[in-house]
Specification:
Layout: H1 11-60, H2 67-78, E1 91-95, E2 101-105, E3 131-132, E4 149-151, E5 156-159, E6 162-166, E7 170-172, H3 174-179, E8 196-198, E9 203-206, E10 212-214, E11 221-224, E12 227-231, E13 237-239, E14 249-251
Parallel strand pairs: 3-5, 9-11
Antiparallel strand pairs: 1-2, 4-7, 5-6, 6-8, 10-13, 11-12, 12-14
Helix pairs in contact: 1-2
């Protein structure tokens, strides 16, 4: 009877081993599926980028009277029936953020508004605010050199190695857009009322019990109650965002 103990595994032991194996297999499969979906999303985004530049080229060459018509034409002529999204998503032309047109995928969304699986990797240092793409308009987004585009308040975006936010709605021309968010371009035009703010990289914190904060400059970020705000005022002190009646602070959308 004594040998029976060493004769093999008990049922409990087997169940435990099988359960552990099942968990391990589950983890491996999850990681693998995540990896595959990530590379599909990346391939889809780069296909949309490529398609966008083809459309811009056609539009600039005056083959079409609008970017939307160029999209329809290019899709019809060159990609008819061919799948561009590796996950089988369908592409369409939409008005994106800030009234800018974008190609969207029915599975992966817009490049600027839904980074898909990459979420969380592309955030501004020290915050959980996503760095948005396609915020500042490219020259080809403008119908002509006279017509203005209206930009709406944005999250954080990059322009020539610096980080910016749009704090209030404003309109600009193609020439102003080409000169960048500081508004000091070829024409030397500066935007009124500082609709844009360049981030200084400084992050301050304030508690709910604090009334004011001293020594702030334009573009400083304030962490307050789990949210992030940009200082959009000329002074050196800011009030608690809960009591902000002067629109000193712009709350950054995540
Ligand atoms: Zn897709």
């Amino acid at each position: 009877m004594k040998q029976k103990k060493n004769a093999g595994y008990t049922l409990i032991e087997l169940i435990v081993v099988i359960a552990i194996l099942a968990i391990l297999v589950g983890i491996v499969v999850k990681v693998y599926v995540g990896h595959v979906e990530k590379s599909r999303a990346a391939a889809c985004a780069s296909n949309r980028d490529e398609l966008y530049s083809e459309i811009s080229t056609e539009y600039t060459a005056e083959e079409y009277s609008s970017l939307k018509l160029a999209f329809i034409g290019v899709m019809d002529e060159r990609y008819n029936g061919r799948e561009l999204c590796p996950s089988g998503g369908v592409y369409s032309w939409v008005d994106g953020e800030n009234g800018m047109e974008q190609i969207t995928c029915s599975v992966h969304g817009n490049p600027g508004t839904k980074p898909g699986e990459g979420e969380g990797e592309n955030t501004y240092p020290g915050t959980d605010c996503e760095i948005k793409s396609n915020v500042w308009p490219l020259p080809e987004k403008f119908p002509d050199e006279y017509q203005q585009l209206t930009l709406k308040p944005s999250g954080i975006f990059e322009w020539e190695g610096e980080y910016w936010v749009i704090c209030r709605e404003f309109s600009l021309t193609r020439e102003q857009a080409a000169s960048g968010p500081d508004g000091k371009g070829p024409g030397g035009v500066t935007y009124d009322w500082f609709p844009t703010e360049k981030l200084t990289g400084r992050i301050l914190t304030m508690k709910k019990t604090d009334g004011t904060i001293n020594g702030v400059t334009r573009g400083d970020i304030l962490e307050y109650e789990g949210e992030y705000y940009v200082f959009n005022d000329g002074g050196e002190w800011g009030v608690n965002p809960d009591n902000d009646t002067k629109s000193q602070w712009y709350k950054i959308p995540k």
